Amino acid sequence: MGWSSLMSPPDALKYCAFLSYSHKDTTTAKRVHSLLERFQIGADLAGRRTSMGPIPKTLKVFRDRHDFEAGGALASQTIAAIDDSAALILLASPDAAKSAPVNEEVRQFKSRHPGRPVIPLICEHASGDVEAICFPRALRYEVTPDGSITDTPVQPLAADLRDSGDGRELAMAKVIARLIGLAPDEVYRRAERERRRRKRNWIVGLAFITVLLAGLTSWAEFNSWMATTQHSIAEIQRKQTLSVSNEKLGDFELTRGNRAGALEAYHASLDVMAPIRDKYPSNIELQRFAARTHEKIGLVLRDQGKLLEAMNAFHDSLAIRERLALEPTNSDLTDWISIVPNVLLTYGNLPEALEAFRNSLRVADSLVKIDPANANWQRDLSRSYEGAGAVLQAQGNLPEALQAYRKRHTIAERMATTIPSDTWWRWDLSVSFGALARVHSRTGQLHEARESLASGRAILARLVSEHSDDANWEQWKQELAWFDKQIEIGARER
Known about the structure:
This protein is α/β, with parallel strands linked by helices. Among the domains are: 3-182, Rossmann fold (3-Layer(aba) Sandwich), CATH 3.40.50; 420-494, Phosphotransferase system, lactose/cellobiose-type IIA subunit (Methane Monooxygenase Hydroxylase, Chain G, domain 1, Up-down Bundle). It is 67% helix and 6% strand. Strands 4-1-5-6-9 form a 5-stranded parallel β-sheet, with helices on both faces. A two-stranded antiparallel sheet has the order 2-3. It has a two-stranded antiparallel sheet with strand order 7-8. The longest helix is centred in the middle third of the chain and has 37 residues, at 219-255.
C-alpha cells in the first residue's frame, strides 16, 4: 500500500471508525456498534467541517469479525478496514487486554496512521486498575512507524461505560464527539433533546391517530369526536394541575433528601406539560414554569455531582428565558456561573468556556451596578473574573489572564476590607494572590511573584491561627502548605 493511501484525508475514508474488541465481548460490541450507527446527526451539523473533516449524515463503523489468519497475521479485510477508518475505537476489557488480535489491530492502526485518534471505551464489567487490566500493550505504550511497541508510556483519554464512570449516555457522547470533532457536552445535549422530542411526538401522534379513527368512522361518531375534543380541553386543564402537582411533589421529596424521587417528579412535570407548551410557545407563564423546573432539575443534578447533566439542564432553562427575553433570576446567574462555564472548562472546551465566563461577567457586572453592596453579586463577579483568567491562562494568553486576575483581586481586596469578619473574602483574597503569583512566575516577573506569595501566605496563616473551628480550616492548611512550598522553590531558584 502506498504512502498516499495511508495518509487519506478523513472525508475520503469509508468508515468513521474501526471497532476493535475481544470476541468474548461480542454482545457489548454489537450494542455499541448499533448505538453509533443509529445516532442521529442533526441536519444543521451534517457537512460542517471540523478537525475530523466534514461531519457525515450517519456514522459508518466497521465492526471486526475476523481473527488471525494462519501464521498469526490479521486478515487482509481487517487491514483494509483499518486503513479505511478515520479512528479506532477499542472496547477495553480484561479480555481485550489479553487478546492478541486486539493488540495487533491497535499496533497496526497506531503505526500506520499516527495522526488518527485511538479511542478507548471501557466496558461495563471492567473493574480495578482499568489501564493495567483492560488496555493492551499497544495502547499503553507508544508505537513507532515501523510497528515496534516502545517502553514509552502514554495515557489515552478513555470514555467509561460503567455507572461508576461516565455512564452509557455520556460515554457514547464522548466517543461520538471525538469521531465528528465536536465537544462532548454539545453531542450529549443534542442527544438528550432528541430523546425527549421523540417521546413527546410519540405521545402526541398516538393521541391524534386515536381521535382521528374515532371521529371519521360515521356521522354519529362525529358527535362523539366533538365530545372527545371538549374532553381534551378539560384534559389540558387537568394536565396543568397535574404538572404543578408533580413539581410540588418534587419540592417535597427534596426536603426529605430523596433527590432521585425529586428528579423523577420534576421530569414528570415537564413531560406532562410538554404538549401544551409546544402548542402555545408564546405563553409566558407556561414557559416560565418550564424554565423554573429545568433549573430545579439542574440544582438536584449538581448536588448529585452530575455536572454535565446539570449544565444541560441550566442550558435548557436559560434558553427558554433568552428566547422570551425573560430576566434571569439571581439563582439563574449563580448556577450559570458555578456550573456551566466550569464544566466546559473541565471538559477542555476552552473557547465555549471563555464565552460562557464573559457572558456571566456581563450579567454580573450589570447587577453589581444596580446594587454594589450585594455581596453575593460581588462574589459572582469575582468568580467570573477568576474563571475567565483560568481559561485565558490555559490558552496561553497570559497578559489578558493577568488583567482578569487583577480585576478579581480588586474585588476581593475591597470586600475583605469592607467585611473583615467574612472569612470567605479573606480566603478568596489569598487565593487571588496565588493566581497572580502563578502568572507572574510564568511571565518572568519573579519579584512580583514572590511578593504575591508572601501576601497570600500571610492571610492564610492568620486564618489558620484565628479560626480553627471553621469548616474550611483543613483546606486552609493545605493551601498554606502550597504557599510554603512555592516560596521555598522560589528561594532555591534565586
